[in-house]
Amino acid sequence: MNRRQFLRTSLGATVAFAGLSTFNRTAAAIEPFKRTGSPRFKLSMCAYSWRDALKANKMDMFQFVDYCADHGCDGAELTSYYFPKDMDDAWMAKFKRHMHLRRLSASGTSVGNDFTVPDDKMPEQIAMTKKWINHAEFLGAPYVRVFAGMSKQSDPAKATERCIAALKECCEYSGKKGIFLGLENHHGIVAEPEQIIHIVNAVDSQWLGINCDTANFQTIDPYASLEKIAPYAINVHFKGEVHPKGHEKEKVPADLPRLMKILRDANYQGYLALEYESAEAPATGIPKLLTRMRELM
Q1: Which of 36, 118, 119, 172 is the most exposed place for a label (fewest CB within 10 A)?
Q2: What is the chain's percent helix, strand, coil content, to nearest 5?
């Protein structure tokens, strides 16, 4: 039994996941990614940053790629929601050609799945995720961002079991293609760092990591929560705010140097994908935040 298997077993014995009431918060977690060398960051941007323009057809994915290239990004995260619903292989090839001509890499793709749905609805969620694993492979993207789910239709324990089973199936599929899945700390059954670490540990796949979203933890100390998951980060969604408990209706400006230090201390090596959600209009706010990120990298 290797260390990850042992920890999975010991953690599984202590977790009931009814609000983590019986979770042993001092239990060891899975081994972090082992990266040699020093921290290395590359700049990317999520298409979600331009969600209003993309949904209103004031920008398309080709123009989004141009924006990323024109503003000095190394990559672009290709949020699935904004691709044409009728896209075919010819469209995908044209899009990939455009990215290559702009010397921009696909830092990742992202899918809006929910792995806490009832069993009869799960095949559709898994099929959608596998479809975007295929797209990631074609586009040369190293990972696909996935959600755990919001657990609206069942108790947290059962939702967690379904999520783990779905992730196992999807990781088995993605691993054959050399594509990572990045489970985001996105509320629901992964609202606490211990919850998402438990799920990643239970899936026990070398192709699963955490998409570390710097603003999604609504805990007393979101920085402390981020410190716990940063060693397992396969990608980072970087934001200009944090959302500590007690500020449910508003976010507060993030300590950007502190966020960078957390990632450096974890020896993170990979993309920092700006996911812009600030109040200032994207046209003026995004260039400012990209400049600040570049200064701190």
Answers
A1: 36
A2: 45, 15, 40
